[in-house]
Amino acid sequence: MKQSWNRWVGAGTAVMMAAALAAGCGNASEKPADSNTKAAAGKPFEGKSITLVTANHPWGEAIKPLLPEFEAATGMKVNIQSFFEDQLTQKLTVQFTSGSATPDVFMYRPLQEGKLFFKNGWVQPLDDYAKKDAAYDFNDFSKSAVGTATVDGKLAGIPIITEQEILYYRKDLLQKAGISVPKTIDELVAAVKKLHDPKNEMYGFVARGQRSPLVTQVSSFLYSEGGDFLKGDKATINTPEAVKAFTTYGTLLKDYGPPGVLNMSWPQAIGIFAQGKVAFYTDANSIYQNATDKEKSKVADQVGFAPFPAGKDGSKPYNITSWGLAMNSKAANKDAAWEFIKWATSKDVVLKTQQKGNPGARASVWDKPEGTTGFPAELVPVIKESAKGGVDHDRPTVISVGEARDAVGEIVQKVMAGDTNIQEVADKANQALQAIIDKDKTK
Fold first, then answer.
1. From the record, what ranges are coiled-coil (predicted)?
2. Which fold has domain 2-156+319-386?
């Protein structure tokens, strides 16, 4: 297992971006200070301070009690602020637009606002910093996680929270019906049909049905059938592979989902699964506690986990960085900002935050028994298996993410509504997505 797990790791990034863009994202000539020189100075940042902005997220709560040890070791003061996700994006956008030098370091969602932030020159590329210090061991980070945080060949942030799409299922229902855990999408469809019993308020399948939220979860169906949202700068959501994936997902929800599924995002979907009314559920592994917490779930002891089932192209779940740490390109003291990022994403600190249930991106931490104590024993091998490969995005990688998600989600919702000409729907959606891509080139 360890040898195969180690193949997951890599430092690779994508193609190099144009020099003009690099210049727009900070002072490209600025190099990180040599760590040996700083170490010789004792507390190299005595009297310095940085501002850290986090989301109201378990990672933020896990890092706060660890800050005193960092401050004691470096002499640096860390001023921390926390906001809800939407407030965080709004605050950062306003401050960066005005050219503010604060916050120095901030949590961000690489696939939601990462490309916008990078293209506007608001984040400092971290390639030189991350690869300067051999002890930091950047090669220890998941290749897919790094890919998520990479824009135009430049490292825009460091992964702190990863997630993959997995299959949740009811162990007791499968055992009673003599059904094996589905390993393929076809097997999943067959099992869903067999366990669907709406007269007794038992539904075969649930997942996100809202137009925008469903896009991230249908993505694994798309990849596993051999498709993707884009190929280069061309929209590809009307290909045979895409139409098949969207039709499968939409039909599962239409024919075997609970009432109201059209309006469900993840809290509603996992909520009805936790009530014991659904046999199968696909979504991110990071929200598992909503199904296993006995105070929230009526079936906590009967929840099983499995890798995402394989399609024509195998099992290809998304394997992404959902949250990363980035540096403000206008930060007054970039070396101090990096010192914090380096510490917060070091092996020792990742171990501590992961023990609190925050799935990190370092393979070495997952390889340690103490690195998996924050997760159910049955979930750990599923996470490891899912993290070996997968795809580094779960939505179209464009600047106008919201518009793109609406275009894709429209196809699935038409399936759910019973539209019989999905190819025509997909063709129109593909034109809309292509227009978004072309528009983004002008930004």
1. none
2. D-Maltodextrin-Binding Protein; domain 2 (3.40.190)
